[in-house]
């Protein structure tokens, strides 16, 4: 079985002081580097539809209003190898035009080049979904791909 499109096409991460975040059509991933040896009981993580709060050993790492809404009861966090916290948020709006430009409303914005690459990737991911028999993982896209690219849904098949 082949790997999911987002794994084959690579990530477009946005670096932050505490780690990085990236997105697919459906999800936003947050990776936070924590001190080696961190235990789950050292972590406090609150995931709400439009708000996130994360602290480790009593120190606030991340807190604020998310860029867009998420499905509250589908958000998860895990502690991996006692040194990385991975948070997965399910986007409420899951179309290619919903490319988050920042993680929080006023923080952790992707620079213009990264934002452009994120939008390209989401557009290719949308094309892959619409055309499951084709492999778009190595494709290059140019032209008007903002807001998810052109809409071909009204064309006759």
Provide the succession of SSEs: HEEEEEEEEEEH
Query: Biggest β-sheet: count, sense, barrel?
Result: 5 strands, antiparallel
* Shape estimate: elongated
End-to-end Cα distance, whole Å, is 28 Å
Helix content: 10-25%
What is the CATH C level class, in words? Mainly Beta
What's the number of helices?
Answer: 2
Based on the structure given, which CATH architecture is correct? Sandwich
CATH topology: Immunoglobulin-like
What does this protein look like?
The protein is α+β, with helices and mostly antiparallel strands. It has one domain (5-130): Sandwich (Immunoglobulin-like). The chain has helices spanning 5-9, 112-130; strands at residues 14-16, 19-23, 27-33, 43-47, 51-56, 59-65, 76-80, 84-90, 102-104, 107-109. The protein is elongated, with a radius of gyration of 17 Å. The two termini are 28 Å apart. Residues 14-104 form the CS domain.
